[in-house]
Amino acid sequence: MPILPTLEGLHSAESLDRAFLEAFYGRVEELLAHPEDFSGALAGRLVGLVFEEPSTRTRVSFQAAVERLGGDALVVAGAEATSRAKGESLADMARVLGSYVDLLVWRHSADGASRLVARHAGVPVVNAGDGRLGHPTQTLLDLTLLHRRLGALEGRVVGLLGDLRHGRTARSLAWGLAVERASVLLLPGAGLEWEPAFEQRLVDRFGLRVRQVVHPLIRAWTGRDEARLLAPPGIEQPALFPGACDGLERLDALYLTRLQDERGARPGRGGYPGVTTAQLRDPLLAHTLLLHPLPRRDELPAELDDDPRMVAFEQAALGPTVRMAVLLSMLRPDAWPLPSLAPLPAGQPEPGLGACVNPNCVVRAEGLATPWRVVGGKRRRFLCALCDSQLPVDYVGCRTTSRVHPVHSQAAQRISPENLRPFRDREEAVAAGFAWGG
Ligand code: CP
């Protein structure tokens, strides 16, 4: 069975690369400088905005973007207003709506929903936020703001503060910052760290160095003396002594996030971290930009709004322009092309793998077989193609030889990706007609 094709659209910050980002920043500047040049760019085009979760900024800024470009937007806000309330599957709804419009923008509460929509829609799909997983147009917005304020991001240090476990914006931005060779300082609230497997994938993909750094503000924010700094190779030197900590001397930007209590998040002991007027007098923060995807709560108090370091509303104001650039790249590449996004594989369903390990994966919500994809070179990992969770695969078979091998063996490494068939255990492989080794 052949590997399924790649997914059309923008589903993850994992699709970004430096060539795309450089060109993207340039397109945003063109749009800001000469909006009149783009006023009819989407004439005759219909964009569907499907928001199955609440949204102010993303939904309205996409609608503003479509209309500023001369197109029409068809807005579906709230799953309860659709036949999803009558039990219609996400796949069926995607297929139907995809036959009505030229592009779909979709927000959903389950991890991987936009990729599932893209498998069925027949038109490009843009992820407007799916569960805890991704919010790539927010990442483009965040990176554009940082780039406009700081210039090249290589070597910059950006802190991610708050709910890293349930928040999609911080997770998505971490990937974008790694693409830009910026360092990422992890400042999760107590009990709100992201999964080690996600960080390991980021570290492996970009060859990041992980250092422990200390600063009194780190204790105030996280309740711990030290925090992990993920730094690109060649930017930060490893500590002189293994296990040693360095003082944190630089923080170019701090990205605050709210507690995602709609996803079951609860503040840990000591409360939820944020910034205060007193903290902003610390020399470390003298020039630190304060970003927030919004909406905010107490973590970024309104009394800081007049501080020149507070840029969250400037960030939000870029939303329509950033989304105009995204729409142009997908619907008018003839006139306004951007370098191709790295495609995400659609994955291949494998009923034998069982349900995805992630309880919030859209595969579980929709009762589907888990489609898998493979990443890594010598040390392959099998991921859910929809939510990126690592699947429990200990053996792989070769479809052409019908032999099965331990996943990290040399024989397994020689199997080309299109011939791989993953198994959780050896017995399952034998039951499927695969012979051992050879
Ligand atoms: N930043 C963001 O996604 O905001 P909304 O939830 O209001 O769209």
Can you describe what's shown?
The mean pLDDT is 94. The radius of gyration is 22 Å and the shape is globular. The longest helix is centred in the N-terminal third of the chain and has 16 residues, at 18-33. It is built from 13 helices and 21 strands. It is an alpha/beta fold and 438 residues long. The strands form 5 sheets. The protein has a 7-stranded mixed sheet with strand order 11-9-10-8-7-12-13. The protein has 3 domains: 9-131 and 320-331, Rossmann fold (3-Layer(aba) Sandwich); 137-317, 3-Layer(aba) Sandwich (Rossmann fold); 348-436, no CATH class. Phosphoric acid mono(formamide)ester (CP) binds next to helix 2.
Descriptors:
438 residues; alpha/beta; Rossmann fold; 3 domains; five-stranded parallel beta sheet; 13 helices; 29% helix; 20% strand; binds phosphoric acid mono(formamide)ester
What's the CATH class of the largest domain, please? Alpha Beta
CATH architecture of the largest domain: 3-Layer(aba) Sandwich
Give the spatial strand order of the biggest sheet.
11-9-10-8-7-12-13
What fold name goes in the CATH topology slot of the largest domain?
Answer: Rossmann fold
Write down the overall mean pLDDT. 94
**How many structural domains?**
3
What is the overall shape?
globular
CATH superfamily of the largest domain: Aspartate/ornithine carbamoyltransferase
Work out the strand percent: 15-25%
Largest sheet: 7 strands, mixed
Helix content: 25-40%
**Contiguous runs where pLDDT drops below 50 for at least 5 residues:** none
- The structure class reads alpha/beta
Distance between the termini: 22 Å
